[in-house]
């Protein structure tokens, strides 16, 4: 029932259209036009997210994927060979997450053209997901009535259902030391880079436990080798699916900065900001049961998984929409070796069709 050739054409056309974070406007407009042609009420909100509605019978479902990809994603040249789609190696492919977008569009077209009975569908294609979940954080939620949904934004083998993801704290710090001539009077200075280095060495980082991770990702400081650096900026993060562990990890990182700064006579100002909250679903949740049945209907055994990363799904759950993240089968995402099998792209479209149809017939 899914038109493989049309789906492949749609996906290839999408990855060759601008989809860099913040530059999704042309792609969004093309999708809006296509959805309107199918009879959906479709448009964009002030953030640029695509929002579309397909009336139906029963309980509504939200279908989500994001329009943007990580760099390098400009000038994608897709290569199709032996059932696999990849880029020519100079860019990412954009299967993250245009595989999800293309599958949703194809499934809706099949449902409309074949007059398949279906539930009300609310489509949300977000912008700037890769740069901080900007689209979902600023979505006009007044246009979303569904209480459950799925995102097609998972990586790895097809069939995974992400039912848990962590809360995420961002830690930013400014360390102020004292400048001095590094060759003439280094003892008069307080080296802010040294303070940062010693503090980082004290921090528990990397994989803390199965639920918790931490990382220092950005350090900026110093202007010349002959000056004792008096200022360093540091950006770090901590994530955990356990709030107590997240508080402890965040506190340990901040205390390391404060203690080392005091020992060296430096000053530190650290700020902690919540990037997003975690979520946990179970097999008892209706959307999880629905996703499991849909995956089984396309011939794959579903797998429930917990993730260490965040996605639009975190934001939807925080807004009271029980949402799970499903794998599209994309592999090696965020690298120039990214690829997806055509067979998985087709499975994704069939999966979406199973999620929205209400007649429960096999294809």
Round the mean pLDDT to the nearest integer and report it.
97
Class from secondary-structure proportions: alpha+beta
Summarize the biggest pleated sheet: 9 strands, mixed
CATH architecture type of the largest domain: 3-Layer(aba) Sandwich
Low-confidence stretches: none
Helix content: 25-40%
Instruction: Report the CATH C-level class of the largest domain.
Output: Alpha Beta
What share of residues are in beta strands? 25-35%
| N-to-C CA distance | 6 Å
Count of extended strands: 17
And the CATH topology of the largest domain?
Aminopeptidase
CA gyration radius, whole angstroms: 23 Å
Number of domains: 2
Structure description:
- Helix content is 32%, strand content 29%.
- With 363 residues, it is α+β, with helices and mostly antiparallel strands.
- It folds into two domains: 4-165 and 278-356, 3-Layer(aba) Sandwich (Aminopeptidase); 167-276, Alpha-Beta Plaits (2-Layer Sandwich), CATH 3.30.70.360.
- Strands 1, 2, 3, 6, 7, 8, 14, 15 and 16 form a nine-stranded mixed β-sheet that branches. A five-stranded antiparallel β-sheet has the order 10-11-12-9-13. Strands 4-5-17 form a three-stranded antiparallel β-sheet.
- Helix 1 (4-15) packs antiparallel against helix 3 (95-113), helix 3 (95-113) packs across helix 9 and helix 5 runs antiparallel to helix 6 (243-264).
- The radius of gyration is 23 Å and the shape is elongated.
């Amino acid at each position: 029932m899914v038109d493989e050739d049309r789906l492949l054409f749609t996906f290839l056309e999408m990855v060759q259209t601008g989809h860099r974070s913040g530059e999704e406007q042309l792609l969004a407009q093309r999708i809006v036009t296509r959805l309107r042609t199918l009879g959906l009420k479709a448009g964009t909100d002030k953030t640029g997210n695509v929002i579309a509605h397909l009336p139906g019978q029963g309980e509504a479902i939200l279908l989500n994927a994001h329009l943007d990809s990580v760099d390098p994603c400009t000038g994608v040249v897709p290569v199709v060979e032996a059932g696999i789609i990849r880029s020519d190696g100079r860019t990412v492919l954009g299967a993250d997450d245009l595989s999800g977008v293309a599958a949703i569009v194809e499934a809706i077209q099949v449902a409309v053209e074949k007059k398949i009975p279906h539930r009300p569908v609310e489509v949300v294609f977000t912008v700037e997901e890769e740069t901080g979940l900007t689209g979902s954080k600023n979505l006009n939620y007044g246009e979303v009535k569904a209480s459950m949904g799925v995102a097609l934004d998972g990586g790895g083998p097809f069939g995974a259902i992400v039912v848990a993801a962590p809360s995420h704290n961002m830690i930013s710090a400014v360390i102020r030391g004292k400048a001095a001539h590094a060759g003439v009077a280094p003892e008069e200075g307080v080296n802010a880079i040294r303070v940062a280095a010693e503090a980082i060495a004290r921090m528990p980082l990397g994989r803390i436990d199965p639920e918790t991770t931490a990382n220092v990702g950005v350090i900026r400081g110093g202007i010349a080798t002959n000056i004792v650096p008096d200022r360093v900026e540091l950006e770090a993060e901590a994530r955990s699916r356990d709030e107590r562990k997240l508080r402890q990890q965040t506190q340990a990182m901040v205390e390391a900065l404060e203690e080392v700064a005091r020992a060296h006579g430096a000053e530190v100002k650290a700020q902690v900001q919540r990037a997003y909250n975690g979520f946990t679903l179970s097999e008892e949740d209706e959307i999880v049961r629905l996703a499991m049945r849909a995956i089984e209907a396309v011939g794959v055994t579903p797998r429930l998984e917990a993730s260490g990363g965040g996605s639009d799904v975190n934001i939807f759950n925080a807004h009271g929409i029980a949402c799970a993240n499903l794998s599209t089968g994309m592999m090696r995402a965020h690298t120039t070796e990214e690829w997806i099998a055509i067979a998985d792209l087709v499975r994704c479209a069939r999966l979406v069709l199973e999620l929205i149809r209400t007649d429960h017939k096999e294809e």
